[in-house]
Amino acid sequence: MKFTVQEIADLIKGTVDGDPKTEIYKLSKIEQGEPGSISFLGNPKYTHYIYQTRASAVIVNHDFEPEQTINCSLIRVENAYNAFAMMLEAYNNLNREKSGISKYAAIAENAETGDNCFIGDFVSVGEHVKIGSNVKIYSNTSIGDNVVIGDNTILNAGVKIYNDCHIGNNCTLHSGVVIGADGFGFAPQSDNHYAKVAQIGNVILEDNVEIGANTTIDRATLGSTIIRKGVKLDNLIQIAHNVEIGENTVIAAQTGIAGSTRIGRNCMIAGQVGIIGHLEIGNNVKIAAQSGISTNVPDGAIVMGSPAFEISNYRKAYVYFRSLPKLADRISVLEKKFKGEQ
């Protein structure tokens, strides 16, 4: 696909300094630019690259004033980073412009599909499934009975959605995501064996949710595991049965959340955080990487450590913790001195 510099400028609402007819056919980093590519300058520390780049065009802020000769066209915009992100999204959408149903897909006769859907090779769609319009379902994805999928949702290759789950509008599920596997429910018996507790609930993803590769969200024992609108989940996250995650919360990779914990709105949870079950995490909470959460966390708190506590107190405690060997040596010296004086 080729576009002129002017066509790109029109897309991102910019103005052109240079040749508007130059053709662009790929994207690049500014330091790795090649003829026919376009890049952007969003961080001042990369400014020196704009005088060296071989890219045919670079997106810059309106107020950028070159101090040396530039050999590429400039597209001036209000915010270069945001404009480049807009262009990436448009490029990504063009690459995903697929429609039609593969002859190798297996779709139940009573399943419903909306307009302009794409269903790829070896996709399996179960009984009474409802799929909205403009949905893209890539190869080797499995959708169980009674699943509902909203408009404009993308299921990448190898996604598995178990029966009765609901996926909202404008969601993106990356490869290897599993929605609705059984929650970890086992009842201990007198003979030290465990009896499986049937997991008969479901998972609900509201609108505008994105889930990273190989993340798993378990179905509820009863009721629903709920991921509210706007939530963004990284790769390799485990969310247990009956968890609820509030609107616009973001969670980084390798975090694990145990059953029936409720997490509020607008939270930021870093990587490798462990959260035990049946807790209440408030709104606007921030949890630092590798923290262990074993008690409720109030609104607006920033916590760190395992077990986690308020972050400024943690940092003070850590200063002392790092000094413990020296403190122990000093105490040993003082003890010997004290015994020698007796």
From TrEMBL:
* Gene3D superfamilies found in the cross-reference section: Hexapeptide repeat proteins, MurE/MurF, N-terminal domain
Q: Which InterPro entries match?
A: Hexapep, Hexapep_transf_CS, LpxD, Trimer_LpxA-like_sf, UDP_GlcNAc_AcTrfase_non-rep
Q: Which GO terms describe its cellular component?
A: membrane
Q: Which residues form the UDP-3-O-[3-hydroxymyristoyl] glucosamine N-acyltransferase non-repeat region domain?
A: 22-89
Which UniProt keywords are listed?
Acyltransferase, Lipid A biosynthesis, Lipid biosynthesis, Lipid metabolism, Repeat, Transferase
EC numbers, comma separated:
2.3.1.-
According to its UniProt record, this protein's enzyme class is transferase
One GO MF annotation is: N-acyltransferase activity
BP-aspect Gene Ontology terms: lipid A biosynthetic process
- Name by which UniProt lists this protein: UDP-3-O-acylglucosamine N-acyltransferase
Task: Please name the source species.
Answer: bioreactor metagenome
